[in-house]
Structure formats: structure tokens, C-alpha cells
Design a protein that fits this description.
This protein is α+β, with helices and mostly antiparallel strands and about 120 residues long. The protein contains 2 helices and 7 strands, in the order ββαβαββββ.
Length: about 120
Amino acid sequence: MILGNHVSQKGSNITVERLRFDFSHPTKLTPEELKKVEDMVNVQIKKNLPVTVEEMDKDDAVKSGALGFFVQKYGSRVKVYSISHFSKEICGGPHIRFTGELGHFTIIKEESAASGIRRIYAHLQ
């Protein structure tokens, strides 16, 4: 864990080439923390892990341990995307089949999005 247990997703906007990711954290990330985040993501990308999807009832998804930061916006049936043992989340967007399809992850900017909310912008190449 890089920043602590208090971190949770607060928003995101993802395209094929870039992403914006908002998360709870009280202070600006140091260059060392940003590098650790980049390295952690790139290790998982290089492992070329399979990304699986399963459709299930929303309550069952939450009980299974899937993270659902915006559960209220989904209907009674949800898609749960899993990346090996690294990540398991409720999500509605399209996805890749293997993490290696993402290419290299580079954080290009980090800023405050709101009080207690940080935002990173990154490229996927």
C-alpha cells in the first residue's frame, strides 16, 4: 500500500489513450509517491494479467468483495471485472482482455480536485 487505507476512488474518466482518476487523500503526492504509483501500475500491466467479467446481482457483487464506489448508479444487475487477485470492481465500462494491452502508464499531472480529493492525469502508451 502506497498512500494508506483511507484512499478510495471518487471519480474517473478513462479513454484508450489517457485517464483522469480522482481519489481521497488529504495532501499533494510527493514525486516519490507518484513514482511508486506508476511503478505499481506498470508491474501489473507487464504481468499481462487476464481481465475477467462476471454479471451478477448488485448485492451479491458487494458481498463477493467487489469494490463499488458508485453502486447507487447501477441497476440490480452489475458487471464485476476482476484482474487476477489484484483488483475486483463493479464497473459498467468496456474493458481489455489482458493488462498488457494497456501499454506503459505514465502520470503526467497531479492536482487538487476538491478539499481532500486529489486528481491524477495519466497517459497509456
